[in-house]
Write a structure and sequence with these properties.
It is built from 14 helices and no strands. By secondary structure, it is mostly helical. Helix content is 77%, strand content 0%. It has one domain.
């Protein structure tokens, strides 16, 4: 039962994150840019969670080491991931850059095996391969020239996000309320975006009604909901399975493109979607250990409090 719940949470996280381009497009049309949109996305998310936790009388007190770890995840796991991916679009076709970014499930698999000795079954390997092929099938791209810097940035965005997912398995984070974890990560990412925006002079603070609605959508749906669902998924099915299932984001993005951007239904779409759904089904049918054992195996491996 916990295995199925974890899969549902991972898919819900992918859906919430997958619709982010719709909100971002609304913001851009109203005068925003990636740096400003990301800053308001994380800052509003952190403030909403802070007010909610205060209303619910949930303690936000954590140790200095926990605080530093969560801010590190926010600044590196989210800020650097997003910045490097968006900058890579200046050097590569967006499809190729996105495809390279999706190397992160494979990296999570490798890191989990090397660092945490997480058991990688044949089913997981097969599911991982199918999901990667599915993502590449979904992204129909033709790149005439390949830019080394663009390739490096896109791959680095995948590496940064993989490290973020792995970091969420630390034992010291497990003891913290998921909502508190998300709040601190959002504030860490906000600080990262402020620093980046100051150096690049790319921040804009023009606000109107449509832009504010898009910022709220980015914050509440594509950040708070997405991150909380991801944390729940990791605790139930482990970081590897959660990362493989995160490729479902590509399916959501394509569907949103068809509905809102009038994109066509292609053979690549049908093939890629089918492969990702099959990979999800394989994970769902895999016999899992006792509830949360997989997560405990990961989180007990490293305790940064000692």
């Amino acid at each position: 039962m916990n295995n199925y719940k974890g899969i549902i949470y991972a898919i819900l996280s992918s859906i919430a994150f997958g619709i982010m381009p719709i909100f971002a497009k609304i913001a851009y049309k109203n005068g925003s840019n990636p740096t400003s949109s990301l800053l308001f996305r994380f800052l509003i998310s952190g403030l909403i969670l802070l007010l909610y936790l205060n209303f619910k009388k949930v303690s936000i007190k954590i140790s200095v080491k926990q605080f530093l770890l969560l801010f590190f995840i926010g600044m590196f796991g989210y800020t650097i991931t997003t910045i490097t991916l968006f900058v890579s679009y200046n050097y590569l076709d967006s499809g190729l850059a996105t495809a390279l970014h999706y190397i992160y499930p494979a990296l999570v698999c490798i890191f989990s095996f090397i660092l945490y000795k997480e058991n990688i079954t044949k089913e997981k390997i097969f599911s991982l391969v199918l999901s990667i092929i599915g993502v590449y099938s979904l992204i129909a791209f033709e790149s005439k020239t390949l830019n080394i810097l663009g390739i490096f940035l896109a791959l680095f965005s995948g590496l940064a996000y993989a490290l973020n997912v792995i970091s969420l398995s630390f034992k010291s984070i497990k003891s913290i309320d998921n909502r508190v974890v998300t709040m601190y990560i959002c504030f860490g990412a906000s600080l990262g975006m402020i620093i980046y925006g100051a150096f690049t002079e790319s921040l804009t603070f023009t606000i109107n009604l449509e832009m504010m609605i898009s910022y709220l959508g980015l914050s509440i749906i594509s950040t708070i909901a997405s991150m909380l669902f991801l944390l729940k998924a990791i605790k139930l099915i482990g970081s590897t399975s959660a990362s493989i299932l995160a490729t479902f984001e590509a399916v959501v993005s394509i569907i949103m493109g068809i509905i809102f951007l009038n994109e066509k239904l292609t053979f690549a779409l049908i093939l890629g979607t089918s492969l990702i759904i099959i990979s999800t089904t394989i994970l769902a049918r895999e016999k899992s250990p006792k509830p949360c054992d997989q997560y405990n195996k990961l989180s007990n491996a490293i305790d940064i409090n000692h």
